[in-house]
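Handout, section 4.2: multi-component inputs.
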Amino acid sequence: MTTAPGLTAAAFADGLAEMRGIVGSEWVFDQPADLNTYRDFYSVLWGEPEEKLASAAIAPANLEEVQSVVRAANARRIPLYPISTGRNLGYGGAAPVLSGSVVLDLKRMNRVLDVNESDCSCLVEPGVSYFDMYRHLRETGSKLWLDVPDPGWGSMVGNALDSGGGYTAAPYRGHFEAQCGIEAVLASGEVLRTGMGALPGAETWQQYRMGIGPCLDGLFRQSSLGVVTKMGFWLFPQPEAYLSASVDVMRFEDLDELVTLLNELEYGNIFNGMPGVSSPVLSQQNPIAMAMIPEPEEMNRMVEQSGLPAWRASFSFYGPEKVIRAQWEYVQSRFAHFPGVRFNEASFTRLPLSADDMERIQKPRFGIPALDIFSVGSRGYGNFNPSDGHIWFSAVIPRSGRGIVEANRVMRRECARLGLDLFMFAPAVTCWTRSFVLFAAVPVYKDPARNRHLREAVTEIIGICAQHGWGEYRCPPAFMDSVMDAYSFNGHILRRVNEAIKDALDPNGILSAGRYGVWPAHLREGRGA
Amino acid sequence: MKAFLIAAALAPALALGSAAAQQSVRTGPTAPELAPGRQVYAQWCAPCHAAGPRLAGTMSLQAKYQGEVPAALEDRTDLSAPVIAHFVRNGVAWMPPFRRTEISDADLAALSAYLTAPLERRGAHAPLLADEMAVLPQGGRP
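Output:
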């Protein structure tokens, strides 16, 4: 068994015995067959001595049990690693960052505590998956929509805490940004509620996020400071209709203005759905991976020869038919001056969806959870199959034409130089408004030699991106230290302040040690090694 | 996992032609003792393994067996309880293992009972969640 550094076998056994008394022995897992299910199935360290492994897993059923488990761990300095549903595949799954941690599996805490049709909000426990919530809303006749990420089996709470994103209207796509109200158990075992949840009797916990004073919600994003046991979210009242459309332009030089206009229209609330910027002419080889952007003359020649657009801006609209048709008409008017511009209404759908609609729609655009996305990777394009999973590289880049071109060229050039395969490459993902996120999916294999190369290459690319001012917003555990290293302004003050907060709130360093590069004091020197 | 839009737009091009030919005709009610297992299948397996297009498990098994056995797990008649338990608890390829907090041992036994029962006792295919919800009345489940 992998044990945490500095923890004696006796203290571990004693702690586990107390935890058995708290949650019941059937919810304490310390045998190899069970621990195998808590490994990161897409780990880039799979089967190597450095693979991050749990020493045990504990599955409490309620807040009080969480508090008792945390107190038992704190008394003995047993490291805990909370997971909601453990389905953060491509970013670490259920495995801890510090080997030997006890995974605190919150899947059994799966109650939908409240859905408020008037406020358009909900309050849920961490074990509630998108599938669970979708079923709950539909079965109760709710008029509210969820915003879902691609895989629907994840936790609403867990996905939001790792800053996941979805596909519907702007206020809901950034899942952490759409949360309103957090309840968390601190390392002391005390319970904190953020925002209006701190005011006894307030009915506004899911209405006003800030409360009074410094807004503490951010303490729990990608953090090592608490076990989140409840979270509120704002939900999207079902619109009357959905329209998706695109604007195609035919010259390399059109990109800057295309993005500038798209920004103005989104920030001016002329459209509310998720936009996109892609390049049909550069997606001929692989429709889900943009090729290297060539020099302007070459790209314009490719456009001329193929007849395919240089760039495509896609727009989507949710609302009453009259309103969204007028919005689309206005959008077209703003692009009418581009030479050779083409407008395309891709689909119009009246809501609610019918059974027939389900056969043709992209479900996440309608807030419907599914797992269809895995087909793109597991049986998709390219010749990397059969692979054993994937990791994500997700860097925040400037939301401009220049941002797309530079990020595309740097990533394509460096990945080619380093021999790093990408099966999906999208330089301008817009789940979060106000920035682009460059997404690249890297296939992983249960092969130490290939994974060693992958780790070295990705670490080098993290550094190269940092030199350009691009930082990852989220990453698998193997890269968390490197990514946090890149956020180095003023002598790494971001990490130093995070460490000071860590020391104050969790002096024994028991919670999520090492998550996103923040280590407790006793492990800081070796960074958990 | 985050993906982007072209992927979803083009995914139908990946749909299996031959999977449909391998689907069994499955109609009628499920035997009462198999209903819990069918529900486990619907929740945990169908999202990737149902007999439909764009589903990773079904596409992968079609690629692996080239039609020698049905690509949709629900139509297989060659599975045994130990084989089902092995894949549920250990995963394979891109499919991760499932924990006992997700699929309990009792759920796994029910799932095995469903997937090893004669086809005629299994009844109609378990629906995908979206399809099941789409036919609910707007006021919710009566």
